Amino acid sequence: MSDIGAGDAYQFEFVSLDAEKLPLAAWRGRPVLVVNTASFCGYTPQYRDLEALWRSYGPRGLIVLGVPSNDFGEQEPGSAADIRKFCETNYQVDFPLTEKNRVVGANAHPFYRWVAGILGEGGTPRWNFHKYLIGPDGQLAGAWPTPVRPSDPKITAEIESALPKP
User: Fold this and answer.
1) Using CB atoms within 10 A as the burial measure, which of 5, 29, 79, 122 is most buried?
2) Where in the sequence numbering do the catalytic residues fall?
3) What mean pLDDT comes out for the span 102-123?
């Protein structure tokens, strides 16, 4: 797309830690919580909350997508294998994780440039564990900065409203 912020999130694709394609279009019609993550950050324990969301809301359709990034404080220095081992061993993470990506600046992953086009530079991640909710229609449905835990009622309420009713 030529217009940053145009279109929907389904135009973007990530690559998994296993080098497999992760097109957001594969999750069309489902809410997707996209979070830039890091293994050696004071906020790293948020992995626990992300995994809890995945286990709780995943059966109803929520996708949690972790996007490891070394952009802030060089707190994600490891390889894909290092990241996977850390997340599985310490937090039992089994939601999808992408390969390491830039999330800010001109070289940011196109998804993050799209978010910047919608929210402006003030809406881009300022640190690890910034959260974006993509609604079932592929549009940005919510954004929360690092200190807002994934289990915060502001986030769970938006997730609930984006999911089919049980």
Assistant:
1) 5
2) 41
3) 95
